[in-house]
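User: Please fill in residues for this 311-position structure.
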């Protein structure tokens, strides 16, 4: 059983990382998006952010060096990523369900990292019992693991209940939405139940992680816990293949759409990308646009849509 579990964990982790890189590269190579041009942009200088301005206010702005305010971006990004600040402000009812789920997943990911770090530390440091750092790490991964599991499980059930009962969300509900939440709840339940029922034969999470890193097949993995770990590994590999990969898309949504205020200078990289987009031949179902796959964006932009509607 241990070999199956080890192979599943390694395979799921590698598949997750590869899929994330592929999806991020696909987003990065996508055509230039229409920019929102909404100000203030957080990476502007603080004085401009306060009154909603931009570097375009300066005389001869194209001759001046641009200064990037990383601290301003971080002040916006961290509350949004960790605490779902936008959802809290605009849809607080949904936030009470979504935040526990997402924050629980963050804690579980942190617990995994801490568990691996502790396992590596105990393999290198001796004696383990006298090492304060290792004891602190153990306390942290236990707290993050239990807290994250409970929050993510309760959050997945709460979100699934909202999806099934809310009349507004029902319009947008797809079977995949319910399936994804159900598989999260099921996986967390099986892993939790398997760990609680493991009994004294199972050496514990830390010893199991050390054995995983060494590929030590002598460690006994109970059947229910093993099934939960295999299911969790499959879920990890599945996440970046679905719309749940919005944690990747969100970066590009902000940096390539909302906050992209790069100037389009002659001969610059942005000019070349826009020129490539203008040469594309789109196909749209709307007949009045005339996007039949033979006309370029330039042709469509120069055409009168009302003339296409008359045909």
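Assistant: Residues filled in for all 311 positions:
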């Amino acid at each position: 059983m241990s070999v199956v579990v080890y192979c599943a964990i390694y395979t799921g982790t590698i598949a997750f990382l590869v899929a994330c890189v592929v999806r991020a590269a696909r987003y990065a190579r996508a055509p230039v998006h229409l920019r929102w041009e909404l100000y203030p942009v957080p990476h502007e200088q603080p004085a401009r952010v306060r009154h909603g301005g931009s570097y375009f206010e300066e005389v001869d702005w194209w001759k001046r060096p641009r200064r990037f305010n990383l601290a301003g971006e971080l002040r916006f990004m961290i509350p949004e990523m960790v605490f779902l600040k936008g959802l809290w402000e605009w849809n607080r009812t949904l936030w009470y369900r979504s935040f526990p789920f997402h924050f629980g997943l963050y804690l579980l990911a942190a617990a995994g990292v801490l568990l691996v770090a502790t396992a590596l530390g105990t393999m290198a440091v001796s004696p383990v019992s006298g090492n304060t750092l290792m004891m602190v790490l153990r306390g942290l991964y236990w707290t993050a693991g239990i807290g994250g599991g409970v929050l993510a499980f309760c959050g997945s059930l709460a979100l699934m209940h909202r999806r099934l009962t809310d009349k507004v969300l029902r319009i947008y509900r797809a079977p995949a939405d319910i399936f994804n939440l159900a598989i999260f709840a099921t996986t967390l339940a099986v892993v939790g139940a398997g760990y609680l029922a493991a009994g004294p034969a199972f050496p514990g999470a830390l010893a199991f992680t050390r054995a995983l890193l060494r590929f030590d097949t002598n460690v006994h993995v109970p059947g229910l816990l093993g099934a939960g770990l295999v299911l969790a590994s499959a879920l990890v590999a599945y996440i970046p293949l679905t719309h749940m990969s919005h944690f990747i898309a969100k970066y590009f949504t902000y940096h390539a759409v909302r906050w992209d205020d790069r100037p389009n200078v002659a001969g610059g990289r942005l000019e070349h990308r826009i020129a490539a987009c203008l040469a594309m031949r789109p196909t749209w179902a709307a007949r009045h646009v005339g996007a039949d796959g033979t006309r370029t964006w330039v042709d469509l932009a120069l055409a009168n849509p009302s003339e296409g509607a008359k045909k």
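For context: Residues 279-310 form one domain.
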